[in-house]
Amino acid sequence: MNKLVIGVNTAMFDGLDTDVAFSTIHQAGFRYVELAYNQGYVGDLSPDLFSENNARHIRELLEKYQLRSQALGATMNMGSEDAVAQFTQRIRFAQLIGATWINLCVGKRADRQRIVANLRELAPIARDHQCVICLENGGDPNYDVFALAQDGFALLEEVGSSAVAFNVDAGNIVSLCPDKDAIAEAIVMLPGARHCHLKDLEHRDGEIFFTPMGQGELNYLPMLEALAAHAIPCSLEIPLRMHRQRDSYPQRAAVPVDPAVSLEVLIQSREKLEKWLGYSL
C-alpha cells in the first residue's frame, strides 16, 4: 500500500505572515505546504502575490523551514472574462515555487460554457509548465458548477485534457449538498483526482465550524484507504478563521487565529492521522 503524502494548506493562517505559517507547519511535524491564495476565502489577493519576487521569497522560506510546496490553492471565478490571463499568472507562479497541483473551485453553473472554454485554453499552458489544474468541488453556491461527482466527470470529459483533474474535498459536500453522504460521494470522485483536501467539521446551531481531524463528524478511514490506493497526495485544509453560515457561504472572523491554536490543531490532526494510517507523516 502506498504511504500518503499529507501537507498543510495555509488557509488557517489567513491574515498572518507567511513566515509564521511555515514555521508553525514545520513545528507541527509536516513537510509539505499548500499556499492558500483563494479568492473570497482569505484576505485581498494582490497581483504581487503571483510575481517572481514573491516566488523567490516563498522558495527562501521553504528552504528555511525544510518544507516542500506540492500544491497551490488558487480558487477564482473561472467564468470571468479575464480568467485566462489571471490563471496563467497562477500557473507560472506554481511552477516557480515547485507546486504541481493547482487547486481551485471554478465558478457557477450559469457560467459553465465559459468555464469549459477557459479551461480548454488553460490546459495546454498548465501542461507546458508541468502543472495540473485540479478542479475542486465547491462548498457554496458561488462554486456550484462542480458540486457532485457527476458534475465533475462531465467537466473533465468536455475539457478533455490530462492537465485537468479533481481536487476532492468531502467537507465542501457537507455544506453545499447536505443531503449527500460526503465521504461516499468523495470516494466516487477519486478516479478523476490528483489531489485531495482533508478537513473535519462540526455543526453548531446550523452553522459549520472546522475541527482537528478525528474530532468532527466525518469518518475518513475508508477514504484514507482509497486515497492511498490511488496514491493521491493531500493537504489538511482547516480554515480556522472561517466558518460556514446556514446558507453555506463563508464568514471570516475579524482577527486572525493565534498561531499557537493552529499549532495545537495541526499536532492533534497529525497524531490522529498517524494513528489511523499506522505510520509517521
Automatic annotation (TrEMBL):
<dbReference type="InterPro" id="IPR013022">
    <property type="entry name" value="Xyl_isomerase-like_TIM-brl"/>
</dbReference>
<dbReference type="InterPro" id="IPR036237">
    <property type="entry name" value="Xyl_isomerase-like_sf"/>
</dbReference>
<dbReference type="InterPro" id="IPR050312">
    <property type="entry name" value="IolE/XylAMocC-like"/>
</dbReference>
<protein>
    <submittedName>
        <fullName>Sugar phosphate isomerase/epimerase</fullName>
    </submittedName>
</protein>
<dbReference type="GO" id="GO:0016853">
    <property type="term" value="F:isomerase activity"/>
</dbReference>
<keyword id="KW-0413">Isomerase</keyword>
<dbReference type="Pfam" id="PF01261">
    <property type="entry name" value="AP_endonuc_2"/>
</dbReference>
<feature type="domain" description="Xylose isomerase-like TIM barrel">
    <location>
        <begin position="24"/>
        <end position="240"/>
    </location>
</feature>
